[in-house]
Amino acid sequence: MLTSITDGFLCCLLGKTPNAVGPLDSVESSDGFTFLEVKPGRILRVHHSAPERPGPPELPGSSPERGAVRCQRRITLYRNGQLLIENLGEASRAESARSPRRCPPCPVPEANGEPGAPEPAGASAKRRKRKPKRVVTVDCKKRITSCKGTHGDVVLFFIHGVGGSLDIWKEQLEFFSKLGYEVVAPDLAGHGCSSAPPVAAAYTFYALAEDMRAVFKRYAKKRNILIGHSYGVSFCTFLAHEYPELVHKVIMINGGGPTALEPSLCSIFNLPPCVLHCLSPCLAWSFLKAGFARQGAKEKQLLKEGNAFNVSSFVLRATMSGQYWPEGDELYHAELAVPVLLVHGMHDKFVPIEEDQRMAEILLIAFLKVIDEGSHMVMLECPDTVNTLLHEFVLWEPD
Which parts of the sequence are annotated with region: Disordered (predicted)? Predict the structure, then answer.
């Protein structure tokens, strides 16, 4: 604690950023890790594990129509923010088993400015019909197949959140690698062993999203499954929206609701980096309390081994302040036609379960699984349960 406070005062006096990670000089692979240069001087550490032999070909006897899902929906956005989703035509059995997702129209403000006020006689006939701000029609057909065994055209991408690193996926990477799947997990800029640019603009959502695009284009194959945790879910959504033909399935772990990202103006992360550095022990303790259902020696060791919340105060502040993504609203998520698995830890203090429930309502094909004994870092707390859920979804195929 005393060392952190001393370093914080020094960085204020000298104008330097504490614990800054210097750029890496080499982009060569070593010990299973690859250092990928996405831009000049911007280097990411990537864990890449590919099966030793190509997977078996698809069974020729399978019907080409099996697993086919037709997405036909009309999405209407009104000027008051109301979203109306209409599923048109034939849908998959997974979708038809649930009630149609029609959002009831919100009350329209009257002349006195109060919604829902009683109308005088004849007023409804004179009132103009609401004009939508935007209408989007989605009409596509996808073939959702299972990924059994070792397939040479399947890649699993794991993307961590703020303050984490690819080490939080240790159990998942080992699990799927032993099953013969090709796995890819990058460190975000300034996290783990990736280089840390000294400018705040390097940690905006768009800058980090372009990094993930470069990683995706480098390793993507015919069928790609995206797995994201917390802030990493936003990058998975971005990639699924940008590459609908390449993204096969998406898994969102404690990612929150389908809302546009906007940094909070009244946040502790708006404090100067030197002050955050002084408060780093308190922040780490708070993250342990909020990120885990239990706070014992096991959880502290998992946090240390996962290299989570071990970033410089400058990177932490810049990443939190750079979470600006106005495009990622409900309409943006409603346009996705890819199957999504939502995993939520019941004791998560960062993301309420209501947000994931709203995400499940907006998405076309979504399955919400709640882990009772888990919290925000559920992949570290309950690795066996998480691995089983992920594997079942990877093997899932519509009838």
Answer: 47-67, 94-132
CATH number at residue 370: 3.40.50.1820
**Residue 226 and residue 218: Cα distance in Å, rounded?**
14
Is residue 209, in this structure, part of any structural domain at all?
yes
In terms of Cα–Cα distance, which of 352, 358, 163 is closest to 259? Answer: 358
Would residue 135 be called left, alpha or beta, if left means φ above 0 and alpha means ψ between -120 and 50 degrees?
A: beta
Domain interval for residue 240: 144-395
Q: For the chain, what is the domain count?
A: 1
Q: What is the pLDDT of residues 159-189, one digit of tens each?
A: 999 999 999 999 999 999 999 999 999 999 9
| Six-digit token string for 305 | 């081994």
Is position 138 within any domain? no
Nearest to residue 225, comparing CAs of 216, 268, 101?
216
* pLDDT tens readout for residues 109-146: 333 344 444 445 554 444 456 788 889 888 888 888 88
Contact 343, 369 (CB under 8 A): yes
And the tokens for 379? Answer: 């992949």
Q: Is 26 exposed, middle or buried, given 0-12, 13-18 or 19+ CB atoms closer than 10 A?
A: exposed
Residues 240 and 250: their CA atoms lie apart, in Å, by: 8
What φ, ψ does residue 137 adopt, rounded to 5°? -110, 125
- Domain assignment present for residue 268? The answer is yes
- Per the listing, tokens 């399955």 go with 367
Question: Per the domain annotation, does 272 fall within a domain?
Answer: yes
